[in-house]
Design brief:
It is built from seven helices and 34 strands. With about 500 residues, the protein is mainly beta. Strands 23, 25, 27, 28, 29, 30, 31 and 32 form an eight-stranded parallel sheet that branches. Strands 2-21-20-19 form a four-stranded antiparallel sheet.
Length: about 500
């Protein structure tokens, strides 16, 4: 039987995964060891492509596949190097060697499940469910088909115990090989410490600021997985905790140690990333940068830039507003980031991708800002929409002062896509008459534009906002790439025919 080694032998080091530097964050995953040979986890690459990572625990080789359509939520080992993988949208039988989906099940089991276990009443079935549902689905292992539904059973929770509690453990992750492994936070994503004890002796206490999802006994140590592998791009390994049956934790075969596995995994991950970079060069990701009051970002030219977790601070005076000037960016992607409240001056952006929840650019002062190329999910609004009324009034006053300056604000002549401009007067905007139409606030209030059949066009929402918001006019922007483009064009043509919209 494995026996605890001396605490001095334990070391915590990174175990790299083949995740590119520009991988998105904030996509959770489970990580599971399936049998003696495979570790399975997941992450997201590119815009939103889910990847399944399989680490061979024999030689440290990483292999990467797909097919899950979400992060891994749970896994269950099957005979013959196969496994059941549970994602948000279904259950897959997956070949861990060929990296292929063998069978899949989506019908009747529901979505966003996170529970997968063997049915204690019938070993030929597994149970699929989630904590929010009162029932759980039964799935036949032989046919991978829905076999019924029953009230959800809550497995008994093993008490933490006085030994673990005394060490500050609030969540037990693993009990194996004479080790008790736990974390000091009840939530997996909170900053916490990993604690390993044996027979009342503290062996390891490691800070893990990105959280802990699971821990697994592998060779002479443990592998610890974070809840967001896209953030860390590595697992954490704690080596030298136990002696293997062959004595590998101390003076045995060094190739059978966890250190040897880490060396193999490091080489494998680096080779996968090297080959990937030849096909698709990684984007430059700027993470967690905050422009403070009075800060400036100037004279920058770059391409394939991703902003992740960046923002601009609120200012107390107009002169303290963060300023971005003389910047030219091609292919800009915004993830969980915002420049709201900043002054943008002499900025050119060729191509913008926002996720639907990050495309809000509020409270900015625009001076000669040019957008070109394909723009996705962008809403420009001079109001900051700050929850503090005093801050909101301050930014509104600055916008009114800007309206006294005749300098143009925005050039959209060569931009196409999902763009919405709210409250910036059209007299400050350089427009493309083929895609843009202007309706004065008076025309929006007095005309019968609502009588026009708009089909699937949502441009009427902008007119309705112009009536209620006190804007000078409303600028309607047709997205020629959108599913409602034909209805948008038809609506704009009718507005012009009736004299509601200004002529081309």
């Amino acid at each position: 039987m494995p026996l605890p080694a001396r605490a001095a032998a334990a070391t915590a080091i990174d175990l790299p995964a083949p995740i590119p530097e520009d991988a998105p964050r904030y996509f959770g995953t489970a990580t599971r060891v399936l049998g003696p040979r495979h570790l399975v986890t997941s992450w997201v690459e590119g815009r939103a492509t889910s990847k399944i990572g399989v680490l061979d625990l024999d030689d440290g080789t990483w292999r990467v596949g797909g097919g899950l359509r979400s992060g891994l939520r749970e896994a269950f080992a099957l005979p013959g190097d196969r496994a059941l993988l549970l994602g948000d949208y279904g259950l897959l039988e997956f070949d861990l060697v060929a990296l292929e989906v063998v069978r899949s099940l989506t019908a009747k089991i529901g979505k966003h499940n996170g529970l997968l276990r063997l049915d204690e009443d019938d070993l030929g079935r597994v149970v699929v469910g989630n904590h929010a549902q009162a029932t759980e689905a039964l799935v036949s292992l032989e046919t991978l088909s829905f076999a019924g539904r029953r009230r959800r059973r809550v497995p008994p929770v093993e008490p933490i115990g006085t030994e673990a509690a005394a060490a500050g453990i609030r969540r037990v992750l693993l009990r194996a090989a004479g080790l008790l492994v736990g974390s000091t936070a009840a939530e997996s994503g909170a900053p916490q410490q990993l604690v390993v004890i044996s027979d009342g002796e503290l062996l390891v206490r490691v800070d893990l600021p990105d959280g802990v999802e699971s821990a697994h006994l592998v060779r002479d140590g443990i592998i610890v997985a974070p809840p967001d592998l896209g953030r860390t791009r590595a697992l954490t390994a704690v080596t030298g905790l136990v002696e293997t049956q062959g004595g590998a934790g101390a003076a045995g075969d060094q190739d059978s140690t966890l250190d040897a596995l880490i060396s193999g995994a490091t080489r494998s991950a680096a080779e996968i990333l090297r080959k990937r970079a030849r096909r698709t060069p990684p984007r430059t990701v700027v993470r967690d940068v905050r422009l403070g009051a009075g800060d400036e970002l100037t004279d920058v030219s770059a391409e394939r830039i991703t902003l992740d977790g960046c923002d601009a601070m609120r200012a107390g005076t107009a002169g303290e507003r963060p300023r971005i000037a003389r910047v030219h960016v091609a292919d800009l992607e915004i993830r969980s980031a915002s420049v709201s409240g900043a002054v943008l001056e002499d900025v050119v952006v060729d191509g913008v991708l926002n996720t639907p929840d990050t495309g809000f650019v509020f409270g900015c002062e625009l001076r000669r800002v040019t957008l070109t190329g394909r723009i996705r999910h962008l809403i420009l609004d001079p109001e900051l929409h700050d929850p503090d009324p005093a801050v909101e009034r301050r930014y509104i006053e600055w916008h009114r002062a800007r309206l006294e300056d005749p300098e143009w604000m925005l050039d959209l002549r060569e931009a196409t896509g999902a763009i919405e401009v709210r409250g910036y007067p059209s007299r400050f905007i350089r427009r493309n008459p083929e895609l843009h139409a202007v309706v004065s606030a008076a025309s929006a209030a007095d005309s019968d534009w609502r009588s026009i059949d708009r089909g699937r066009s949502s441009l009427g929402v902008t007119l309705d906002m112009a009536e209620r918001s006190g804007w000078e006019d409303a600028m309607l922007i047709v997205d020629p790439h959108g599913s409602a483009a034909d209805d948008d064009f038809r609506f704009v043509r009718e507005l012009r025919a009736r004299g509601i919209a200004e002529p081309d």
